[in-house]
């Protein structure tokens, strides 16, 4: 996805959502999993387990980034050139920060699997983290610019599957077209 964004092929949230839908329907849900020998779509449809919905806040916790930082003797830490204050009991300790890279105003503070009060911003120079090339999955970071668009292939596959699933009203008995 990042490569599409970098090339200017995806410029709006709607285009990003469409690209994600194409990838999900045309590739992810359709391919057979090596362990289950079923596609995720087929496995989901065959399941009799009741569906559960999680609150958005709980889901967003799953996607937080995490970094370790040392708390200085004044109870402060730095992240992306911002300075934050944390619980003074953590001075001199190595803590974990969990945060949304698109909103650096809220940092969760963790120490030895215990959550402390969120860090308090003291000096904010950046509201968002910069995405570094090395933070991207290797296959995305190394993809050549002129390579065939994966999303285009996934969309073709999705459309072909959709065509197979639709009723062909133009067919006569015996299978030939009218």
Structure commentary:
This protein is of the alpha+beta class and 178 residues long. It has a domain at 55-129. It contains six helices and six strands; from the N terminus they run ααααββββββαα. It has helices at residues 2-6, 13-28, 40-46, 56-61, 138-141, 150-165, and strands at 65-70, 76-79, 82-85, 94-100, 103-111, 114-123. A six-stranded antiparallel beta sheet has the order 1-4-5-6-3-2, with no helix packed on it. The radius of gyration is 23 Å and the shape is elongated. The model is unreliable at 132-137 and 139-148 (pLDDT under 50).
What's the gist of this structure?
This protein has a domain at 55-129. The protein is 30% helix and 22% strand. It contains six helices and six strands; from the N terminus they run H-H-H-H-E-E-E-E-E-E-H-H.
């Amino acid at each position: 996805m990042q490569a599409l964004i970098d090339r200017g092929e995806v410029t709006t949230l709607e285009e990003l959502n469409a690209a994600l839908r194409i990838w999900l329907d045309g590739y992810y849900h359709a391919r057979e999993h090596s362990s289950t020998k079923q596609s995720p779509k087929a496995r989901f449809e065959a399941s009799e387990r009741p569906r559960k919905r999680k609150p958005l806040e709980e889901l967003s916790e799953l996607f937080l980034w995490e970094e370790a930082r040392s708390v200085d003797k004044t109870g402060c830490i730095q992240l992306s050139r911002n300075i934050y204050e944390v619980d003074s009991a953590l001075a001199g300790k190595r803590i974990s920060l969990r945060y949304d890279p698109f909103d650096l105003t809220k940092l969760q503070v963790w120490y030895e699997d215990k959550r402390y009060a969120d860090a308090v911003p003291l000096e904010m120079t950046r509201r968002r983290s910069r995405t570094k090339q090395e933070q991207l999955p290797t296959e995305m970071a190394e993809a050549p610019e002129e390579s065939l668009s994966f999303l285009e292939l996934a969309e073709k596959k999705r459309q072909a599957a959709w065509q197979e699933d639709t009723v062909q009203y133009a067919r006569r008995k015996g299978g030939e077209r009218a």
